[in-house]
Write a structure and sequence with these properties.
10 helices; eight-stranded antiparallel barrel; ubl conjugation pathway; Hrt3/FBXO9_C; F-box protein Hrt3/FBXO9 C-terminal domain-containing protein; elongated; alpha+beta
């Protein structure tokens, strides 16, 4: 035993010495290389230096899936060990039962495969390659009435849709259905997080399209401010007003007045603003292009990002101008809203300013909005996405 230990020690010393000798010879060859000439240094300095690369942040969903897959594999291993121990303990009890357990299909150990809910059934879609699945998911993301993704512009545009154009496409990419597909099984959850799918969603949501992001495309869609267009922003306002009693003048009467402000945005730069007393259950389905009613105005909107704020606390300012009410032809209205920082949701808007412009005198008059409340987003399934 001592002789073997001594031989192992001597062999280890020889390997360490040889490794150090190789490093020293490599350092000597580097030191003996000739220094570059002055002309060479001048030529190299004239070349345009590459821009510094922004360190890429890890994908949050991929990291979470990796952690969950490891936990799932460990759970399956513990379950299989328990079944093996149970089968070993009952081996002498019933040979038929043991044979049936051994012939049972193995437990699903990989989260990148599809397993049937019925053990006797087959799963033909499990044989589809990932490229085919990505193509299918791209069709899931695109609205059904549009052959391609419709750009959702955040800037002022002059595009006016045709009267008969289907407005379901104006709600943008159907990322809700994409997330529903990801809930089916582990493999579809992993496939629905692929970069090409979320890159298409991001390019269809933001204009100009985001070219370089320091994180994954899905994280960019979650953290970059955006106006949601598959629903309506609703502000519920209420105040009390003193009245008179017809029967008894000594009785003090207070009336509670409740009204709603609705804001719906479209990707072509248009928006609708509706001030009414109709409840949301009745009003949101009527808020479509072409609606003409009292208190409804149509205008244009564009968004300005809050510069200097960290990504987690960055919001945006939405400016609405040329807001016209057909019943008030001599005036236009301007509205300034602030999109609160809420990554992934973007569901609250605060009214900062509201004013009217007299088209004849060019007089701008601020409109009091002391009874205004924050707008809260509500998804409307009838809009299509």
């Amino acid at each position: 035993m001592d002789a073997e230990l001594q031989a192992f020690r001597s062999q280890w010393r020889d390997e360490v010495a040889a490794r150090h000798g190789a490093r020293a010879s490599a350092a000597g060859r580097t030191a003996r290389q000739p220094a570059p000439h002055v002309g060479d240094r001048g030529a190299s300095s004239s070349r345009p230096s590459s821009p510094p690369r922004v360190p890429r942040q890890p994908d949050s969903l991929t990291s979470l899936l990796h952690t969950l897959t490891e936990a799932h594999a460990a759970s399956v291993a513990r379950h299989a060990a328990a079944l093996a121990a149970e089968a070993q303990a009952s081996a002498d009890a019933d040979e038929v039962d043991v044979a049936a357990r051994r012939s049972a299909p193995p437990l699903p150990t990989s989260v990148h495969e599809m397993y049937p809910a019925d053990e006797q059934g087959a799963v033909p879609v499990a044989r589809l390659p990932d490229e085919v699945w990505v193509t299918i998911l791209l069709h899931v993301v695109a609205p059904t009435v549009a052959p391609t993704l419709v750009p959702m512009a955040r800037e002022h545009q002059t595009y006016v849709p045709e009267p008969g154009e289907p407005w379901r496409a104006c709600t943008g990419p159907d990322y809700v259905s994409l997330e529903r597909v990801g809930r089916v099984c582990w493999r579809l959850r992993w496939l629905s997080a692929q970069a090409p799918v979320w890159k298409a969603v991001v390019h269809a949501t933001y204009a100009p399209p985001l070219q370089h992001v320091p994180c994954s495309w899905r994280d960019a869609f979650v953290h970059e401010p955006r106006v949601r267009m598959n629903g309506t922003y609703i502000a519920t306002c209420a105040y009390t007003q003193q009245g008179l009693s017809v029967e008894n003048v000594w009785v003090r009467v207070l009336h509670k007045v409740e009204f709603y402000r609705y804001m719906r945005f479209f990707p072509n730069g248009r928006c609708l603003s509706w001030l009414t007393t109709d409840a949301p259950s009745e009003a949101v389905r009527q808020l479509v292009p072409g609606l003409r009613t009292k208190g409804l105005a149509a205008g244009r909107w564009h968004m300005l990002l809050d510069d200097g704020a960290p990504p987690a606390r960055r919001g945006a300012t939405i400016v609405i101008d040329d807001l016209r009410d057909p019943h008030l032809r001599g005036y236009t209205f301007q509205m300034t809203l602030h999109l609160r920082p809420a990554p992934g949701r973007w569901h609250r808007l605060d009214m900062l300013a509201y004013s009217s412009l007299n088209l004849q005198t060019a007089e701008v008059v601020p409109i009091p909005h002391k009874h205004a409340r924050p707008f809260v987003f509500s998804r409307v399934v009838g809009y299509g996405v």
